[in-house]
Amino acid sequence: MAGLIKNQLVKHLSKFTRNLKPEQISLDVLRGNSKLQFIEINEEVLTDILELPTWLRIKRAYCTGVTVNVPWTRLKSSPIQIFIDEINVDVELSSGPPAKRGENPFGNLGDSNSYGFIEKNLEINFDSDAFGGSFMLQRLSVESRSPGWAPVQDLKHARINCSVTNRTLMYKQLSWHLLRIEASAKSSKDEKRSKINAPLRLITSGGKIRIALKKSSVDGKVIHARIQTILEDILWVATLPQLRSAISFASYIMSLVQESQKEMIIVPTPSGFSNRSQVNNTPGVDASNSTFKAFHFDQTSYHLHVKKIDLHLCDDANASSCYPPNWNIESGAMQVTLFQVLIDAYPKALASSDRSTWMRYSTPNAFTNWMHSRLSEQYNEIMKETKDSTLRTRLERCWPQMMGFHVIVRMFDLTIQCVSDMNTKKDALKNLFVSERHLRSLPSDQHIVHFEFANYFHPMTDTLPVPKPAAYLQLGPFSLTFDERTLRWCLYVAHNLQSAIEDGKLKVPVDANVQAPDLRFDLLMPKIIIPLPNPVSDARLPHRLVASMSLLSVSSCSFEFNQKAHFRNLPHLCNNVKVQHGNEKFIQHLNNLNNATVPPSSEILFLRTSPVWIDTDHGNNTKGLPLIYDIPLVGGAILNADFISAFIEPSEEVTVMIDHFQFLQLTRLSAKLSSFFDLLAADQKHFTGGKPPSAPTVSFLAVLDKIRAHILLTMGPMPSPYDACPAVTDINNSFMDRLSVEP
């Protein structure tokens, strides 16, 4: 009896394995236990089942042991459990022609079986001529869960059936204790993985993938899926050689993809059929089961949630020969900390949807309001430009069914430290970017970073016009500190990465038919802090220059500007501007900005702010002294590869109130910034080897119609620098008291 069952098992498993023999199977028929020792999996079948791209091939796959428990007396309520000791997969990256794929042995199998997969290890090794690496999951577990993701003892609690719609919701969870990813470049083709240099490593502790499936209870077809990847803390220490290796690896992968696409045989699409994603004609949610209604989802979506990402970007420890002259950062490093990162993707969402069914999404919000207004505006523009009545009728009928590909990136909090080096002490660490959510009492569901991208398409045709893609960023509240060492080090890192991109010939293919997206950036309550030169001679000299506002908006779509703004009459303005050498092109660009004739390959942006306040103070938690206050700004810019022209003007009269201490520090700041920009120019010359810089020329024009200046002097005789200086707090209080006295 046992021998007959073993032969039948070998017969069926031979489709998926290689060289499987009956003696490798131990069988206990009555208890429902079966053990298989060292199974070599057929890599061709595995490649076909996983539907891997042609440039990714499985060389070898095997597991050291498999144990199967079949509960013969409880098949309807208890799962069939599969215990796998260890899985090893060797993957090869190649640009050769794709291998012929046979019939999928799982093609006729339904997905009605349930299983348990308990705490085992999975390791995948990949290899190529230029790169090698591994992907390892420790203590991997796969099991059925309840709709609330709680463990279940009965499989009936892991699915929800609806007899009215003939739909079934199923829930699976895959979890692991440790995830390790390693990838590195080889110096020669024959080099083993143990010898590859500059390894790029990513290690996370704990994580899970939650999969919710909506299937047809008639034929078992998967209709929609909701996949959530949840990760715990991620610590990633990346050096410049590792980032260069990552760029080279990305360039190598893109070259393989391009080569594989050349080898692919393109099957012509039948007339009248579009290869775009089809809209599923699924029944509505009019289900009799209230539980089914509560957990129902109507589209496929993918979600990533990371609790915390701690990123350390480090300089080369032995790269002193690459540093520019007068370099004062030895083995620099920068730390970036991201809290509660959410990334959501909806490949096929109805463009006119109110998004009420999206996960962890509050609607309406600033982006949905702007997006719906832009869709309405573009619909009217397209209808006006369309002269063909038949096309207008088709567009009017298909526009409500238009779909969109949406990506949302959100961060609850964000902190970026200034660059530090080997000589930096712990108490000297400063923050370059820090959120102020704790000072502004933000709602718990509001994120510091909210970015969205939407790309639109008609699901059944490619011939109808579609709106422009839309990109929106909301950032803040935050404070940003201008730090010279950090800016200089970031430019050094950017040069290294740019060199790696050029060496690897990493270029993203650009489709000439793709429209430039509509852009909108909203900065909420930004605060820009510029440290003033160190006031060593007098404690009454201010330490910082602080600019703050409630809102700064930048958009590729024009705003409603104040009627007083010169922005509406740029030609007249430019005719009255004294044109100096090199400014002729700038004036031409400003005229183009007003006439809406943007040069080719250029992007036009508009800017407006709430009232701006500029103060000086003596550091954190000190009272600020006003310098410029309550001035809204408007402006615009034209950007292209060769030239960037920017224009800005205040909407109201500028009022300046300055004392001699502020004037002295601002004069010193002007000289300090001039020297710093000269230093950046010398760094750029060092990076390019004396070649002309490839960066675009930047011109800036600020129009001030009227300035009202108040110069404040100290009361009484001028103090001597040898006299004892009063406390900073006393200075601030007495000065503010004098300002508040009625004349």
From TrEMBL:
UniProt protein name: Chorein N-terminal domain-containing protein
Instruction: Enumerate the InterPro entries for this protein.
Output: BLTP3A/B
